[in-house]
Design goal:
128 residues, mainly alpha, 2 domains, 9% strand
């Protein structure tokens, strides 16, 4: 691709124009088509998100990640900082995370003893 710097916009950013772009039409030069230089990465992420595996992960998220934040806030006192200062609040957050991980580990361990392997079942159901 050959880029040419045409001008600068009002924010001082350079406006680049691609001369070998297949989207450029000679009869409609006033039209501006904005494509990010990271478009390939965006397309890959979109494909992953819309894949069957991505749909399963997205359906599991409200019951895992968001629930974890809610528990931190409601059950473990992260709605308000108990201490002053960045280091002390950071310690509070880390202790809360340790408590949550220990609770999750104990729950999974007890389920494993009963014969349920929840994490393995979710991973095995996911198509690659």
């Amino acid at each position: 691709m050959i880029w040419a710097i045409c001008e600068r916009n009002r924010f001082g950013l350079r406006i680049l124009q691609c001369h070998s772009c297949p989207f450029v039409k000679k009869e409609n030069e006033d039209r501006v088509l904005r494509i990010s230089i990271h478009q390939e990465i965006y397309d890959q992420l979109r494909e992953q998100r819309l894949s069957p595996r991505g749909k399963i992960l997205r359906s599991v998220r409200p019951s895992t990640v968001e629930l974890s934040f809610a528990h931190s806030k409601e059950l473990h006192g992260l709605r308000y900082a108990r201490y002053r200062g960045v280091q002390k609040v950071k310690t509070q957050v880390l202790m809360t995370a340790i408590i949550q991980n220990l609770k999750k580990w104990a729950k999974l361990r007890s389920l494993k003893q009963v014969g349920l392997h929840l994490t393995h079942q979710i991973i095995e159901e996911m198509p690659l």
